[in-house]
Design a protein that fits this description.
Layout: E1 32-38, E2 48-52, E3 55-60, E4 75-80, H1 97-106, E5 108-111, E6 122-129, E7 137-147, E8 152-164, E9 171-179
Parallel strand pairs: 4-5
Antiparallel strand pairs: 1-4, 1-7, 2-3, 2-6, 6-9, 7-8
């Protein structure tokens, strides 16, 4: 992915749909939410903060900058409303590989905090750049429904790319919404 010009202004917004729930298997009882970000292209991204409904889920600080050639491992944020759901625990974690393969391979995760009390029927997930490393930004962000008891990803709630620029801070790189109506 090429480095973006300062004049480019991009805001990615994606909304989850009811069709996503059809991806869930009959044995998946969605009880929790997992938020994952990933520097998928392994080029140094700006440091960024992830917020859910105005609450800070976590801040990711990336390794490297333009003076070091912008190389970086696949770094990302991992936060679940059930703290026992950490990288490597989910039995179907490979479902994340389409959007997080470099982060799963490099295993450089920043743990986040995600409280169930922050969730509402309609939710906003925002990724905001907090530094400018002058390498451009491109990565992925997603929120998943999780069956914590059975250690399963159930279905995606929202997903897309975060995109940042060289320029004024803070800069919103992703703004997505999703509904949360867990099964009884």
């Amino acid at each position: 992915m090429p480095i973006m010009a300062d004049t480019d202004k991009i805001l990615m917004t994606m909304t989850a749909t009811a069709e996503n729930r059809e991806l869930a298997t009959d044995c998946c009882n969605a009880t929790d939410i997992l938020v994952v970000t990933c520097n998928q292209n392994r080029i140094t991204d700006d440091d960024y903060t992830v917020k859910l409904n105005g609450h800070v889920v976590g801040t990711v600080a990336h390794v490297g900058d333009w003076s070091t050639g912008c190389g970086s491992p696949g770094t990302g944020l991992w936060a679940c409303t059930d703290a026992s759901i950490v990288p490597g625990v989910l039995t179907n974690e490979d479902a994340l590989s389409a959007n997080c393969s470099s982060c799963l391979a490099d295993a450089v995760w920043t743990p986040g905090t995600l409280s169930a009390a922050w969730l509402a029927a309609s939710n906003e997930l925002i990724v905001t750049a907090t530094s400018d490393e002058w390498c451009g930004d491109w990565g992925t962000v997603s929120a998943w429904a999780v069956d914590a008891k059975n250690k399963l990803l159930c279905y995606p709630l929202t997903s897309g790319a975060y995109v940042g620029l060289n320029g004024p801070l803070p800069c919103v790189m992703f703004d997505g919404t999703f509904d949360w109506n867990p099964l009884p």
